[in-house]
Write a sequence for this structure.
């Protein structure tokens, strides 16, 4: 069912939020996990880790756009004292998943965050990524372009990390 709200100047159409089951099924497909239970465990771990790093309006909007259970896991986290780099974030997730390595945790994080990015509008995804340290865009399945040495108006290049 599609919900449409009319305003004299604009019409806003929103698809209804995905269910937790649909969300975890998409994570299962993206991450090629054997079971939805495994995908659900990974999703909970990644969303709880992310919840400590997204703040302000973006935190509220992201929680509102996620399925109810995903929003609960995400929003229940206390904001981090210090933002983690993308590599530190992946390592933190690896530490929470038994038997995980940096490589498998990077896969897990990307499997979940790319589904999150697909669920919300592109503007919100960009604002969330902009709030995080460099390197997170790739975890969300987006290109991370950085300004060239010529300045903010110069051509974009790929990061060297």
């Amino acid at each position: 069912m599609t919900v449409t709200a009319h305003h004299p100047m604009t019409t806003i159409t929103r698809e209804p939020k995905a269910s937790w089951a649909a969300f975890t099924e998409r994570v299962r497909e993206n991450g090629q996990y054997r079971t939805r239970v495994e995908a659900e465990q990974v999703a909970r771990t990644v969303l709880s880790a992310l919840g400590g790093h997204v703040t302000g309006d973006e935190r509220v909007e992201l929680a509102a756009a996620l399925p109810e259970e995903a929003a609960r896991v995400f929003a229940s986290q206390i904001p981090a004292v210090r933002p983690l780099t993308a590599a530190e974030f992946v390592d933190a997730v690896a530490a929470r998943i038994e038997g995980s390595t940096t490589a498998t945790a990077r896969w897990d994080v990307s499997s979940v965050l790319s589904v999150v990015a697909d669920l919300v509008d592109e503007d919100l995804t960009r604002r969330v990524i902009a709030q995080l340290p460099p390197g997170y865009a790739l975890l969300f399945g987006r290109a991370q372009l950085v300004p060239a040495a010529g300045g903010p108006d110069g051509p974009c290049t790929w990061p060297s990390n």
In short: The domain at 3-157 is CATH 1.10.490.110 (Globin-like).
